[in-house]
Every structure is written in structure tokens, then in C-alpha cells.
Hints:
Strand content of chain A: under 5%
Low-confidence stretches of chain C: none
Number of domains of chain C: 1
Helix content of chain C: over 70%
Strand order of the largest sheet of chain A: 1-2
Structural class of chain C: mainly alpha
Helix content of chain A: over 70%
Low-confidence stretches of chain A: none
Shape of chain A: globular
Largest interface: A-B, 61 and 72 residues
Number of helices of chain C: 3
Mean pLDDT of chain C: 89
CATH class of chain C: Mainly Alpha
Order of helices and strands of chain C: HHH
Shape of chain C: elongated
Number of strands of chain A: 2
Strand content of chain C: under 5%
Oligomer: heterotrimer
Distance between the termini of chain C: 54 Å
CATH topology of chain C: Helix Hairpins
Radius of gyration of chain A: 31 Å
Amino acid sequence: MEKFVYIALFAPLVSSLFAALFGMSPKKTFVGVIASLLLATSFVASAILAAYVVQTGHGIHVTMMDWISAGDLAIPFGFVVDHVSVTMMVVVTLVSTVVHIYSIGYMDHDKSFNRFFSYLSAFVFSMLVLVMSDNFAGLFIGWEGVGVCSWLLIGFWYHKKDESPEVNPSISPSWAANEAFIVNRIADLAMLVGIFVLYWNTGSLQYDVVFAALPYLDESVLTLAAIALFIGAMGKSAQFPLHTWLTDAMEGPTPVSALIHAATMVTAGVFLVIRANPLYSMPEVSEVSFFIAALGTFVAFFAASMALVNRDLKRIIAYSTLSQLGYMFAAAGLGAYWIALFHLAAHAFFKALLFLGAGNVMHAMHDELDIFKMGGLKKVMRGTYLYMGIASIALAGIPPLAGFFSKDAIIETAFNEGTLFLWAMLVVTAGMTAFYSFRQVFLTFDGDERYKEFDIHPHEMYKFVLVAMSPLALLAIIAGFFQGAFQEFVTSSPLMPDYVMSEHTHHLAIYLGILVLIFAVGGIVLAWKKYGNGLKRDEKCENSFIYQLLKNQYYIPQFYAEFISKPYYLLSHIMWKSVDMKIIDASVDAIAYLFFKGGDQTRKMQTGNLSNYLNWMAVGLVLMLLVAAVTALIA
Amino acid sequence: MDNILSVLIFFPAVAGLLGFVVDKSSARVYGISVATVELLLAIWLWMSFDGTNAGMQFVELIPLVPDFGINYYVGVDGISLFIVIMAALMTLLGMIGMNIEKDVKNMIISLLFLEMTMIGVFVALDAIVFYLFWELSLVPMLYIIGAWGGPRRIYASIKFFLYTFTGSLIMLVGMLFIAYLYYSVSGVWSFSITDWYALVLPVNYQIWLFMAFFAGFAIKVPMFPFHTWLPYAHGQAPTIGSVILAAVLLKMGTYGFIRFSLPLFPDASVMMIPFMTVLAVIMIIYTAMVAYAQEDMKQVIAYSSVSHMGVIVLGTFAMNAEGISGSVFLMLSHGIVSGALFMLVGVIYDRRHTKEMSEFGGLAAVMPKYAVIFGIMLMASVGLPLTIGFVGEFLVLLGFYQVSPVATVLAGTTIIIGAMYMLRLFKRTFFGPITNEANRNLPDLNAREMTALVPLVIIVVWLGVYPKPVLAPIDTSVKALLNFMEEKAQTPEAKETIILSKQTKEAE
Amino acid sequence: MIGLSHYLILSGLLFAIGFVGVIRRRNLLMLFFATEIMLNSANIAFAAASYYYHDLTGQMFAFFIIAVAASEVAVGLGLLIVLYKKFGTLDLDDLASMKG
């Protein structure tokens, strides 16, 4: 079985290096095909491993070689394939394979076709390292690796120039890429601190050793580690206040948004909390866990509110990703780790589908993303309409699609834990989710054909692309039915605690479900009423304070720009021009100048006149005699 | 070859002397062949080095002034071995990448002499020999900056020379005082460092001596607030000068801390941890901020060098094997990465004769190979895992966390602000549309530049993925050093700090 | 009775005369004379001390100084002649080519 671990892990790396060989040559379709085949290989290997884990019930642990060892620290390249990681592996490789095939069509006209595949496969490799590693340092390799790939891919169209934030809220792809990298780095520092805390208190970074040692640790240590690791997770999963980068990341090509900024990388934070569940389940850190749940709920609501009014197709989906990540954190924070993982997987399928559908629309609309300029596209894009419809129904949480089961379970958990405020927020958010998903579907596909004013001639995507998307659509429909089997499988792992609803909740479950459904259907109906028959602009509403607030993302990006970026640059400038040049360097030069001036002044003694010299000599002689006399007297 | 070290030291010098008779047109080829042989010798040294032995190896001792205990005394251990190899490597690659038309012969000879002094400093085990090489290294560098530099080269080179020279004179006084103390205790003169290690100094003497050595090392590193000579030196030096300066000469300072300060003055070193921490943290954050404000590519790299040297200093005073090994490893990685970055800036300077970032933009489309290599080095510089930059930085921060979590978090901001200035540099130079017509037809890296840069890329990835061959010998020697310090420390506080800082709380 | 102190006072006076001469004179030749006076004042002190302490070292030293003074004059006068040939003067105020 070990060889499948290595095949699953290294096939994407091989794919990346292979594509990199052609990175600077013009488009070669076979690069995309071979990359997709290698990714498919990785998927098959992952599936075999999954079957193995299901059958035998235990994972595989391999240690490839040593990485860093210094002092008492020893970090190997070790990989563990257990219930949690194999689930992630299957999800990641499946979505990646689809996205790779999709990209062959989507990036068809791009001159950097080969380079794109190199980055995309490198990302998959990093992500697999992240989920498969058996220690925190290995996780960090993947963690940073996906960060770099995300940087490369967001900034893929690096040649675009910077716009003012009014024209393009993300300024430019390269700007968005840098923002994503730097914001993630802030969180990574916290994550490193978490790693250091665990190392110095347990003497190892291996998951099994660390988790075994947890019961012996002090409360303060556990709290610090839990907080630090969670801040790390917040960065990757774009939780408030580190969320701004995710919407700006939409500057990247759409397959990237689908793979990285929806299905896989952003869920890494959730994965970390799930992976470290022994830590977050400790009674000493229950407050941290509750904070995670509360923050998750807040972000779910907060992001959904911004999605309500946005006009950018991809940004709406990005907000919904944020919101769904909030749901996952809510579940993980409340202790329902398998539910979080289940929602993670289900979300990966329908969100990737939604993004790929959006990519088709973008392709058809010649990169126009404003949904106010679309409408009536269902006539020309039947397949895409179907896919995006399915994905939106799943996202809205309408049974029997996947989103209903996974999201309902999370809402039920919030009720079960007695955190009724969180529960209420999540229910309301479910209604908002349904509203903005269908607002976007209706504005894009239904109603009048507003695009005609802009002289755009949309056309459907290639057939093979639509076929490639079908597995995702299928899974978005049926994944929910496997909830029971999934629970049984994942929680059979010793590292994964089970979570079952109490008897009381169980009785109410049907009513709770219906309530959520009412909100969801209500949201859809509202969206239909407002947007089902074409776009009717409501000036009064659009100028209201709340609408503007939401449209400007609560003014948070402006706040960051005004109060962090600009002051930092100004301060740097002062540090350079005033402190470094005017104070430090100037004082060094002043000392040198002092010596120089001193020499220059005393130079005048050198008159060249011998008798002057003799006079000086005489003075010196007298002085020395005096000194000798005085010292003799004193002694 | 028992006297391999002497061969390593004097081969470039002798070859440099012979270089005077070499024909001008073949000077470059001559230089490269000499440097290649030197590198091969250095690699041979590594191959025959016993990584499990923590002590000095390949020791040679020839009395010079027996009455005063001054000997030609050299040897290598795990700490110095790789710096020696790096010095040989960077000299060779610097020569290959060099693009100088004027007085090539003189440049080659200067570089070969510089190589002698660099290797001499790192293998010297006698304080006087160490001091001789230390000061001699200034002369070729002064010449390189002063003769091939930019418009303000005279100012920059004089500043470089006088500033570092002043510091090292204070260090010399410290050395003489230790020798005197040794004489007054044992009755014989000795300048050999290994003899001095045995000397137990009173704590108040240790503090004064620590400060004297600090003056020499801190200016060389350069530590805040003694760093201002560096931006001028880098700003005016030719590419090859910056490469050697950043890659090897700066390491003399941090190497000095490990070779002299820690084992000679263990108590003072422990007492000085807060002082050094404050300086190092200021150095990391402050110079990173200054780097962010720069408009000139080379100045960004120059200030980033100072910032990274701060991390190295911090690791040195972590008093545990993780921190100090990390610090030594970071010296290597910083040498490789900053050397490569200076070469890369040199590449664009050769083409456009400007280093202003505002002159560029969109270079990634014009010079893709250049952009790729720059990108890899950038990522190594910001400490991406699986590149050489991560290993050292991670170990240093990990090690120092045990000493002071707060300082570690402050120093750890280097991963954020380091990314900020490097990404800003990269975005302004490589991304965006091509705004300047002069850049539209720039040629990509040529074969000569690729030959100089590709080996560095390979090392960056190789030692990032598998640092063990280098890290293991370093770690062995560092552990021995720490054990020695623990034994030698007199004050209970110092002993306790050294013991505590390397202890993990294992689960019972 | 003439004692040691008288010799020493004489020696001191001569030295002072020579010293003032060295400081005040502007002509190099005169400086030479003044130096000679100072040297000989020392000789007097040496010889007198030697006599009164019954120690011949002092007198030996006096001879030594005479020898040194003689050779100094020989070399010095030679230099003066060269200087005079070159500059046409021996006035110190005109010989300031070492002005810093």
C-alpha cells in the first residue's frame, strides 16, 4: 500500500515539473492532457487508499526520510493516511482532476497555458503534503506551499496594471496576490508560535506524540497553543479580520478560484482544527473552541450579508465560500468535527461546480463579471445553467442535494449545544445564502438579455469541459445520502471523536429541518420576486446606508489601506529618511567629521617654521616637567 | 593531505601572485580555474571531514613567535567548515557571473587575495592569525569598492574601511588583554583560542571583554546602530563586491560571536542576552521597514541583509542547539541567497545601468528565466519551507522561543515584513505592464549568468529539502560548544539559563 | 669656596642662555650655537658631579657628549651649507616649506 501513498503524493509533483519544462514555450495541449492524467492517477491512488482504510479500519504511516534535525528536534518527512487525511486526499485529488481537465478548455487561448498547469499541479502537491503530513512542521510545508502557489496563481495575469480601487476593488492581480501572501504570513507567524509552544512542551512535533502528551500540559500552554494554531487557521481560511484577501483573490483565473479559493486551500484552516481536534476537545480550551464557533457563525453571517448586494459574479461566490467556511468552523468549534469535515467535502463539490460554471459564464461573456450586465443566458448556455442551478440549490440547502444534509447537521449541532443565538444566526444566514445564490442565478440566466447592449455574443463552453464537470454535479446531488456512512467511516478513527445529537434534539430534528428549509425557500422566493423577471433597479434602496455599507464591504479594505498600509509606508519612509539617514548615519559621520575638523584645526600648528616648533617643544617640555613635579609631590 | 587547510589558505594567494604575470586576456579564465580548484579542495575537505567528531580537525600548528605564544594555528570544526566551502563557492560563482571590462586582471587578483583572507579567518585558531586575516580582508575589499564602484565609491570605501577597522582595533585590545590574563594565570604567553577556552575569567572582566569583542563583531555584522556603512558599501560596490561582502564578509561577525564570545565569556554572554535581544529585534524590524521604503533594488537587498543578520544574531544567543545550529545554518543560507540576489540585481544593472525600481515593471514577460530565478531566491529569502531559507529561520525562532516568547514573536515578524519588502520589489520590477520602452527588448539571462546562478538555485532547493549533510556536523559541534559553556559557566544564573534553554518538557 | 652648587648654577645659567637662544633666534647658525651652549652646560654639570661624587662615569659621559656634539656640528654645518646654497638664506621664517 505504501507505493500508493507515494503515487498519490508525487504524481502531482511530477506533473508540475513536467509542465514546468515547457513553462516558457508556447501552448502545448499535451501538457494539459498529461497533467490531467497524472492528477487522475493521483486520484485513483487516493481512492485505492480510501478503500484500503475502509476495509482494514486502520491507516498507513510512512516515513520517507529525515528533514531537519538539530538539538533535540527531529522532523522527518512522514506521511499518514488515516480516515481524516484520506477523505481530504480523495476530495482534493477529485476536484483537482476535474479542474485540470476543465482548464484545458478554459485556458485554451492563454499564451501561458503550460505555466498554468505547472502552478496548478504544484498547488495540488502542496495541498497533499499539507493533509498527509504526520507532523506539524510537514503541515507547515504544505501550508506555505499552497500559499506560494496561491500567490503565483492569483497573480497569474501579472501583466495587468494597477487600477484605482473604485475601478477594480482588487486593484490588480499582482496586488491581490501580494495581499493574499502577506495576510497569510501574518497568520503563519501565529501558527509558528503554536508549533513552538507544542515543541517546547511536548518535545516533538509528531501528531501522535503531541496528542498523547496533551493531558499532561498546563492550561495556559494548551490555551496558547490552541489560540495560536487557530489564528494560523484563520489566515488560510480567511476568517474575519483576515478575510479581505479571499475576495481579492478572485483576480486569478477561474479554475484557480474553484480549486484553491473554494474547494481546497481555504479549507486548510478547517482541516487544521479537525486534525488538531484532540487539542481543541480538551476541557481546558473549551473557551477557545467556543470562540471558534462564535467567530465562525459571525463570519457566516457577515460574509453572507456582503454577498447580498455584490454585483460581481465571482465575488458573490467568494463571499459564499467565506460564509460556508464560517459554518464549518462553527461545527468544528462546537465539537462536531466529522460534521465539519462532511460539510467541507460536500462544499468542495458544489462550490467547485459553481465556480467552474461561473468560469463558463465568464468565458462566454468575454471576462465580464457584472451580473447586472448579464441575464437570459440560459438560452445559449443550457449545460452551464443546469450545473449552476444544481450547485446553487445545493448551496442553498434544498433537499435532497448535498448542501442540505451537511448544513442542516451544522445548524442542528448549534441547537443541540444549546447555543441558541448561534443557531438563530445560522438559520438566518441559511436564508440569506439561498437569497444571494438565486439572485445571482436569476440575474445571470433569467430575465432580459441585457448583455446585448454591450455587444457581447455569448457561447457555450466546449463539450468535454461540460462532461468533465459532471462528476462534481453528480456528487453535489448525491453526496448527502452518504452522511451516515461517512459518519461511521470517519469516526471509526481513534483520532476522530463521534458526535451524536441528544435525544431531545433528535425528536425536534424534523421541525428544525423544516424551519431551515422555510428560510431557504423563502430566500429563493424573495430572489425570484425581485430578480426573476429581469433587473429592476431600486434607486432608493441602493442609496441607503446599509446597502452602501455592504457594498463597500463594511469599509474594511479602505480601513486597512488607510490605517495600516499607508501609515506603514509613511513610517518606513520616516525611518529611512529621518532616522537612518539623519540620526544614525549622521552621528557616525559627525564623529568622523569631529576628527577631521580637529585635525584640520590643529594642522595650523604645523607652520613649517622651525623656531615655532622649538617653541612648542619647549612648552611641551615645561608641561611634562610640571606633570612630573606634581605627581612626585602628590606621591 | 594533512595540511589541506594551509593549501586552502595559501593556494589562492600564491595563484594571485602568479596572476600578475598572466596575460590580461586570459586573466578571467585563470581566475576561474584557480577558484574551481580551490572549491574542489574545499569539497575534498568536506568529504574527508568526520561529521561525528565535534572537535577541531585538520589541525596545523607552526610556531611563529614562540616567546609570545603566537603560532600559525588552524583547524576546522562543523561550525567553520561550511562557511569555508561557501566562501570558495561564492568566489567562484561571483567570478563566473562577473561582468567587468575594466582591469579584469586586477580584479581577479584582488578576489584571490580576498579568498585567502576569508578562508584564513574561518580556520584560524590563533587570535593573532585570526586578527591578521580579519584586517587583511579589508584591503582587497577596499580596493574592489574604491576602484570599480559607483560615483561615490571613495566615500563608501573609506567609510567601510575606517568603520570596521575602528571596531576591530577595540577587539584587538580585548585579545591582548586576554593574552595578558592568560600569562598572569599560567606564566606563559598564548594566543591560541583553544588555550583561552580553558581560561576561567572573572565575571566583571568577561563583561568588559565581551564588549570589546562586541565592538569588532557588531560593526562587521553589522548590528543596529552600527549598520550604516553597509548600504553605502553595497550601493557603490560592483556586483562582485556586494556578493562577497554579503555572502562571506558579514558572516565573520556572527562567526566571531560563536567562536569567541560564547565559549570565552559564557557568563557575560548569558548576562548580555537581553541586550543582544533588544538590538537584534530592533535590527530585524527597523531595517526591514527601511528596506520597504527603498527605491533602489540593491538597497532593498542590502537592508534586507541587515535584517536577516539580526535573525542570525538572535539565534546565536538562544543558548540551545536548535538556535545556534539554526543560526550557523542561516549564515550559509543567507550567504547563498543574498549573494544570488545581488548577482541578480547585477544582471539587470548590466543591462540597464540603473537599479531604480521605478525604471522597471513587467520584466517577467521580457525575461522569464530571470524572473523565475529571482522568484526562487525571493522565496528563499522570505523563508519558504523546502528552500534553504526556511531551515535556519525556523530553527532560530524555535530555539529562541524558549528564551523569550515575546522577542520571538517580534523577531518572527520578519516573515511578514520580509515578505512585504520583497514582494513589493518583485511586483514593481517584474509585474504589471511594461511601462518603460527601454525594457521591452532586454535579453534574458545568457549562458554565463545561468552558469553562475543555476548552481545556487540547486543548492537552495537541495539544502531546503535535505539539509542533513550540512546540519548534522554543525549540530555536533554546536552541542559540544553548549556542553562546554555549561561546564564553564560560573554564576549559577548563567548555568541555569544554559540548561533551561535547551530543555523540552517531555511528557511524563 | 666653590662648591658643587656653584657649578650647577653656572650650568643652569648656561643652559637657560642656550634655551632662550634656541627659542628666540631666527638664524639657523645661531640656533646651532645655542644648542652647543646647552650641550656644554650639561658637560659642566656632568664633570662637576663626577668630581664631587668621585665617579668617573660623569666625565665619560661628558666626553661622549663632546664626541656627539662634534659629529653633530660636522653633519649639521654641512646641511646648513647645502641649505644656504639652495635657499640663499638661513633665516627660519623663510624656510617654511613644511607648512601643513
